[in-house]
Write a structure and sequence with these properties.
Largest sheet: 6 strands, antiparallel
GO molecular function, one term: acyl-CoA hydrolase activity
Keywords: Hydrolase
Number of helices: 3
Pfam families: 4HBT
CATH class: Alpha Beta
CATH architecture: Roll
Distance between the termini: 24 Å
CATH topology: Thiol Ester Dehydrase, Chain A
Strand order of the largest sheet: 1-2-4-5-6-3
Organism: Thermosulfidibacter takaii
Structural class: alpha+beta
Number of domains: 1
InterPro entries: Acyl-CoA_thioesterase_PaaI (IPR052723), HotDog_dom_sf (IPR029069), PAAI_dom (IPR003736), Thioestr_dom (IPR006683)
Number of strands: 6
Length: 144
């Protein structure tokens, strides 16, 4: 495993074990690399809105977690400062959703990412764009 992928994996493990919303929603990590993360979630009853389909906030949170892992994968603490999302179709009970976050640009302070969500049939569910602000502070912290 190269150094960049090793650091990205450490970031993923740190984030995975400390992100309480990830645990509550049941988000799992599939893959991580520098500037990239793939996460998944199976839509169950707790994810449904009043219309009986997956709540948009759940899909947004899936994107946001992928964004957090990919955004911090270079080992510098970063936070989202803007995220927008477009929904193309509903996700239903039992659907396996996969979100992929990809780095488009990473500067000294500002990062730009895209997050795409698809279901198990490869149908696009949503597309999000995120901007992150990064500090010189290491992530994960050297002494958690």
């Amino acid at each position: 495993m190269n150094e960049g992928r090793s650091l990205a994996k450490r970031v993923e493990e740190y984030t995975y074990h400390r992100d309480r919303l990830r645990a509550l929603l049941g988000i799992e990590v599939v893959d991580v690399a520098p500037g990239y993360a793939q996460v998944t979630l199976t839509v169950d009853e707790k994810h449904l809105n009043a219309a009986g389909v997956c709540h948009g906030g759940v899909i947004f949170s899936l994107c946001d977690f992928a964004f957090a892992v990919a955004g911090n994968s270079h080992g510098r603490l970063g936070f989202a400062i803007e995220v927008s999302i477009s929904f193309f179709r509903e996700a239903n009970l039992g659907d396996q959703l996969v979100a992929e976050a990809r780095e488009v640009h990473m500067g000294k302070r500002i990062g730009l990412f895209t997050m795409e969500v698809a279901n198990q049939r490869g149908e696009k569910i949503a597309l999000a764009n995120g901007v992150s602000y990064h500090f010189d502070e290491p992530f994960p912290p050297e002494d958690p």
